[in-house]
Amino acid sequence: MATGTPVTLSDADVRSARLRSLLLAEGGQRSVLEVAEWFGAMQAQDLASGSWSFGVRCAGLTEADVQAAQERREVLRTWPMRGTVHFVPAQDAAWMVALMSKKPLAGGAARREYLGITVELVDRAVAALSVALTGGTVLTRDECVAVLQSAGIPTAGQVSYHLLWYGSQLGVLCQGPQRGKEHTFTLLAEWVPSPVTPPREEGLAIMALRYFRSHGPATEKDFARWTGLGLRECREGIAGVGDDLVRVETSAGPMVSAAAVLDSSESVRTHVVLPGFDEFMLGYGDRSLLLDPAHFQAVVPGNNGVFQSTLVRDGRVVGIWKRALKAKTADIAVTTLTKLTAKDRTAFQREFGAYGMFVGREPRVTWG
Fold first, then answer.
1. pLDDT band at 75 (very low <50, low <70, confident <90, very high)
2. pTM of the model
3. For the domain with range 271-367, which CATH number is right: 3.30.420, 1.20.1300, 3.90.1570, 3.40.630?
């Protein structure tokens, strides 16, 4: 990392730099793969939210384009870190899972005990699925459950989900393209037969570069939380990047940023509408620069981990929105969290127009 006297950034500077890092600046002529490679991983346990995370960063993109990128095997969904589903570049999936799956697998022991799953049962399940999926086969989750049941493996409740999760954390399985509304699974080694295989030290550096260039300025603890890696490993990764990363001072303490982002004069978008599970919110432990703490309960009701979709003005959350997709319309209900001017509403209306194009429906917005 570059050394010397750190630059001091105001809160507004941090928010502007983060918008550039998060690819929420003006323009945005990018592909799905380019965005995935920039971020490294994008949270996607909710497919509709994960897809719009690409759409809001890629002008003119549609949901069908995100699906097509999965079918071309450019990106895929799996559990690379924190035991949570993310979109990742397909060629990077195997090494990312290997690098960051140790803690989730260890942490899953208590869950397996609660579900009554033994190590022997897990091994049998992974073996049965491996046989069924060999040869490029892609099966829906229900079809995978049928395979397990045929092998005499119990699947009631959350057992089947955990077995599929475990097989993915081992790097054996990954999710294939959606089949209608059904999630699918396939063998990672067959779906991506020529993966990238960096050594551990290089992998740590890649993760550090991708995190800070797509989220910075951010703290080392933010990076550790995002990856699930220990601080020592994270600092090793940061050191391995070299001068592409720099330290900055902020009101929240020292942070790390990509040097290129700080040098950029690219204009940021003043108004954006984001999905609930977007890296804008989920990429940081401390969200006070992005969200008034008084509004946290509105964005995450009951602190249950389910984030509402947000309206963002000048890098701060100012409202939430929900959608209901009809045959020809996207009915959008907005709840404002702070006062919006007529100019704000016009700007957000334009952003919802882009969302309507993404989902192929006419947006109908009601304001509350």
1. very high
2. 0.95
3. 3.40.630
